[in-house]
Amino acid sequence: xxxxxxxxxxxxxxxxxxxxxxxxxxxxxxxxxxxxxxxxxxxxxxxxxxxxxxxxxxxxxxxxxxxxxxxxxxxxxxxxxxxxxxxxxxxxxxxxxxxxxxxxxxxxxxxxxxxxxxxxxxxxxxxxxxxxxxxxxxxxxxxxxxxxxxxxxxxxxxxxxxxxxxxxxxxxxxxxxxxxxxxxxxxxxxxxxxxxxxxxxxxxxxxxxxxxxxxxxxxxxxxxxxxxxxxxxxxxxxxxxxxxxxxxxxxxxxxxxxxxxxxxxxxxxxxxxxxxxxxxxxxxxxxxxxxxxxxxxxxxxxxxxxxxxxxxxxxxxxxxxxxxxxxxxxxxxxxxxxxxxxxxxxxxxxxxxxxxxxxxxxxxxxxxxxxxxxxxxxxxxxxxxxxxxxxxxxxxxxxxxxxxxxxxxxxxxxxxxxxxxxxxxxxx
Length: 428
Hints:
With 428 residues, the protein is an alpha+beta fold. The protein folds into two domains: 52-211 and 300-428, no CATH class; 221-299, no CATH class. Helices cover 52% and strands 14% of the residues. The protein has helices at 2-16, 53-88, 90-101, 106-150, 153-159, 164-167, 169-189, 303-310, 320-327, 334-361, 373-393, 404-407, 410-424; strands at 21-23, 29-31, 212-218, 224-231, 236-245, 251-262, 267-270, 273-277, 289-293, 296-297. The radius of gyration is 36 Å and the shape is flat. It starts with a helix and ends with a helix.
């Protein structure tokens, strides 16, 4: 009986005895316990749930790093291009600065030169952004992924249950945002400063297109137009001559005007007279003509088309609305109509092509385990370069047998299956 009582007391004290402590390196102790097993039917989630704060925090982190790299690359590229142009044309800039300052002081000339450089390249940076942003998106993505791989952050994200396709989502969100910025830049900002983009290094502080001579131009009706001076700021032609020909190619009517002003639908002529052939040429070679006053000339040659024909690449600076207004002219020639349609829809194809180029390049950098990013860059560079060049140059080429508005999307159609195959082939 006593033995049973002592055994019961021993069991009671053993139950109340605290668990043994295990000493740690720094003198701390922890409880020795066994890991708890999950209950049957309740498994721990392998992937973060939708709306998990950890996922949104990771998205913000990647997007912030991507935006910082984009901004850094844009500033670097702008600085490099402007510096090269200034060094190559330094004498012209200083001559323009001397004309602006109208002084012999070196300080004033230097300040005027700096102001002229800013005034010249300020509007050009808007145009330069449209040419560089596709390449910058791909390059900044490579730098961002290299940082994530070097810090083993991709490995940590994969260990938390995220897939590589899910990690790529912030890159495409930021790319869509930058593409929207380019759309606003192309449709709202560049058309307002289009007249400033035609200036050269010697056109110091000029705020409008310099008047130029209009060479012989043929409109859709077969008329030949010439003007001694075209003032783009006032939409005015000076010393206008127009020749109309008959079916045999002979001049049937000639119009002379002191000036012509565009009123939105046609040219309003000032002091204009039209000479019309009244009969065949006489035996002495004289031509019987009749002269009468004329007040208006309706033609498809408008101020926008004059500037586009005068300056190569000026059509790229027009907005969608300006191009549509030009295409609404029923007298527009077929070649000019195709050219404007390629300009109108080609920018859409370029935007889509840049996004597809990013989708083609991103699988080279999203890897499961750390790799040599320089080697990955050498593999990605030729593929991304071909995709970006095709997206930029392809829409400008005419495709025989297809309408102009459809032919510009051929590069995007070719890049789409390649981008899809690259994204699907990512191992995660």
